[in-house]
Predict the 3D structure of the following.
Amino acid sequence: MARPVPIRPAPGQESVWDYPRPPRVERCDAELVIELGGEAVARTTWGWRVLETSHPPTYYLPRSAFVPGSLRAADGASWCEWKGQAAYLDVLGGTVVAPRAAWTYPEPAAAYEVLAGAVAVMPGAMDRCTVDGEVVRAQDGGFYGGWITSGVVGPFKGGPGTWGW
């Protein structure tokens, strides 16, 4: 499959086609808020962005950013060729349970040690996720957890026909 034509970023934007492979982890000081069941289940101004070619950023929040009782261990695991073995979590907010909608790397690979215990969520499974007050759009497909804001341009991997990118 041919590589898609990247959208040219406007001033202040990033192209996901300029992100590296293997992915880079960078500190994020934006306010990150996750809402489910009509309540904020997580809020922080201290997290990380994982930036990988063709993917919108995936945001990882420290576990301490989550309201006590809003995360519950879930069955299953998956393997990332870069970060290692992920464990899944259910997210609970109000009377809503989003099954296996979050994941963490208890013992990530060496280059990703800063993510140990941090939690990422599938924004499409939440009521809403925001970055500095901007509501994000979820990355297409049910496999990746990228957060699309006005600060990033694609095209983005995840939708139909993009698996081979």
About this structure: The mean pLDDT is 96.
